[in-house]
User: Fold these one by one.
Assistant:
Number 1:
Amino acid sequence: MSETYEIKITALGNEGQGVGLLPTGKKIFIPGTIPGDLCEARIASQSSKFAKGLCLRVLEPSPDRILSFGNFVPGADLAHMSYEASLRYKSQKVSGCLTRIGGIEPAALEGVMQEIISCKEPLNYRNHMQYKIVSGKLCLVNSFTMKPEDPGNPILEYRIFTRVKGEIERVFENAPTLLFDEVVVRGSERTHEILLELVSSRPETHEVTIGNVRHYIEASGFYMHLKSALQSDGYRLTGLTLRISSTATEKRTHSGLRVVIEGSDYYEEILFGRKFRIHSGAFFQVNIPQAELLYKCAGEFTGDAQSILDLYCGTGSIGLSILKPGQSLMGLETVPEAIRAAKENALLNGISCASFFIKPAEKIDFTGLSLPEPMAVVVDPPRKGLDDALIMKLISRRPGKLCYISCDPATLARDIKLLLKSGAFTLQSVRPVDMFPWTHHVETVVLMSKNEN
């Protein structure tokens, strides 16, 4: 495996790795390379079907390369690729999955595939960042080296987060501590509110850890220092929470015991002119302007329905954003805290025609629903896609409109194949959305209507 090869990169894999061919004809995936690169590489590992490679140097750079090889940006695995080229890659990624996995004929897809919605401001768009603490510094994991690094001049996070990060590091420098493993910073550029969460995996009992953290926050002046620094920049620190993640599962899922240390456990965001309260730990889209464009696609499609059924509703952000006068809304979600927030957000906006329930989407009983017709169903499942039981219920129920929002083109294509193969639905539109510039991730909104034939 120490032998080196000259590899011409011709495509990008699903996770943004360059793809080329070895002299044997076997595919090789090489992180950090892009189509058009001619690189010198060696094999890191291989199976009977493909190999994983390591780029030693780029001999001839692609015309789409904007950073020299080795200048990787932590958290931004496509930062070395021009923005226009990344948009082409994401569109091809979605269409490729739908034809290859979804079984949609290229000619049929061409008739419904829409141009990707680009991001007008692709820099400093993230409203949610999670940093690992290494020797008092707040770091991001480099997706190529898999090691935490100082992000330096970050390109993804809100600019105010850079200030927050610096002030937190200043506190840690003056009052070193081993209490914390990570810092989560969330906030809004529209309300100028910031929420902080400190993460600990200490082995002591929760009571001891909480007591030690409260003592540290008071003795170091952590909260008051950050509050004052943000206030001078025109922002408000709404609260500081502690998350104790003791197990591997809690660390992986960002869960565990949450405790409010100072202030509140939420900040407020504005979406489509409506106010949303985002609690610590709750899912919310990281790119607000792009979320509005994505939800606009869904809202225009479901606008003529009398009711909207929002499955995997989370904090209600989609349903409450696209809800129009005269429509009714019902949301289902398995996380009790999310349902509590959804109800809270409905009240914040004076919306009385929305109801939210703690229930798995696949347990929906369409026969017992009292929603007025015609009904539109919106699904925004996790990366694993829809449950088979829910797919069969959707096929049986055949709502007038079905809007599928996905963060994973592969599982989206798998589910679309079953929905279309049943004959219950007709594909109306596929629209990729660049929700996460400079990364390999892409959001997609697929619109389907009931097949009347």
Note: Residues 79 and 194 are 26 Å apart (CA to CA).
Number 2:
Amino acid sequence: MKRRTSLLATLVFLSGIIPASLGQDLRSQPSPVLPSEILGPQLIAWSQLQKPQPVPQPLPPPDRPMQQQPEQQPSQSANPPAQPQPPAAQTFTGTIIKDGNRYVLKVSSNSVYQLDDQERAKQYEGKQVKIAGTLDATGNSLHIGSIELVS
């Protein structure tokens, strides 16, 4: 009986001391230093500082006249420069497809934009089109300015 009690006490002692001795104190270990050729964390920090810029609109072919931008009214020019600018018109080329009950523009395998004017988009279903328009603030919905078939 005494031997069994001492064996049990030894097992209890070892079961408490072994995990504690094998555990590692992560605070006492220095953080790993990455080699200078690995730029992962620096690139992530750098990319968060970047601001997306719209792609400039290409010039029209010489046989087409440039569309004139409407002149600003005097009340608009008096706004302070801190006012956010309206989104710039962009050109998107892709295929109009039906996604559920909505028409969308599929630009690539992983780029799809919801279209705001479903009636205009409906007539181009399954066709390759070029849409001039503006993206909403989330960048998911496209306000159609003009739409034309790509030949």
Note: The two ends are 96 Å apart (CA to CA).
